[in-house]
Amino acid sequence: MTWEDFLKNTDFFTADLSVTSIALTLLFSFVLGLFIFYIYRVSYKGVMYSKTFNVTLIAMSMITSSIILAITSNIILSLGMVGALSIVRFRTAIKDPIDVAYLFWAIGMGIVSGAGLWRLALISSVVIGITLFIFSKISDVKTPYLLVISYRTEETNDLVFKLIESEAKRYRLKSKVFNGENYELTVEIRERKKTAGLVNKIGGINNVASVALLGYDGDFAV
Q1: Computed over its alpha carbons, how large is the radius of gyration of the chain?
Q2: In what order do the strands lie in the sheet with 183-189?
Q3: Which of 2, 7, 181, 196 lies 20 to 30 A from 96 at CA?
Q4: CA 19 distance to own-chain centroid
């Protein structure tokens, strides 16, 4: 038997996949994707929840499991897929770092499910899901906020700081800018419970044009 005959013997390089095994694998990866979908939905803390991104997690789990099934069933095809997938580049910007964890979670569960390691995929998903859910519910008392205040006169500056000192125990001046018409003051505060009331009180001071409270992650806190 020559080397050429050996390569032409496709039975050596392929493994039969029954319709039942394919359906069960896709169904299992779909169930895991739904679990990831639910955990992402209940633990999301951002401003704009994206259902499209969340549905993508389900699709990625199923697509990845399909690719792994194809790779494990045909050695020659697996080499071609490795070359084809190596040129794929994703340019979508990820706004929240936690979204990267969910993407890798969906892809990882698709890989494990496609490889037939269903027990590992199930236990890993439960542990990861519980971990992410618990940490999403733990409130960070020391979370910093940025208080951005725009006012018209220099005298208003003293009134603003007196009010901040009376309401916030910990604060720090980050910047002060004058653009020719208004002053813009940026103050870092770490008071969690009084932030909303502080915004309302500062907004009631004369000559204050606007007040905004922001978190360091770019989302509005109130």
Answers
A1: 27
A2: 171-178, 183-189, 145-151, 208-215
A3: 196
A4: 35
CA dihedral of residues 108, 109, 112, 118 (deg, nearest 10): 160
Q: For 60-87, write each residue's pLDDT tens digit.
A: 999 889 888 887 776 656 555 655 555 5
> Between the CA of residue 203 and those of 126, 152, 166, 199, 215, what are the distances in Å?
46, 13, 15, 6, 19
DSSP 159-193: HHHHHHHHH-SSEEEEEEEE-SS-EEEEEEE--SS
The model's pLDDT over 148-170, given as tens digits with 9 standing for 90+, comes to 888 888 778 878 888 877 777 77
User: Which of the four CATH numbers 3.30.70.260, 3.20.20.70, 3.90.650.10, 3.40.50.880 does domain 145-215 have?
Assistant: 3.30.70.260
- In angstroms, what CA-CA distances link 9 with 69, 71, 77, 164, 168? 20, 18, 14, 79, 77
Give dist(CA 185, CA 78) in Å, integer. Answer: 59
Q: Please, where in the chain does CATH 3.30.70.260 lie?
A: 145-215
Residue 86 dihedral angles phi and psi, to the nearest 5°: -70, -20
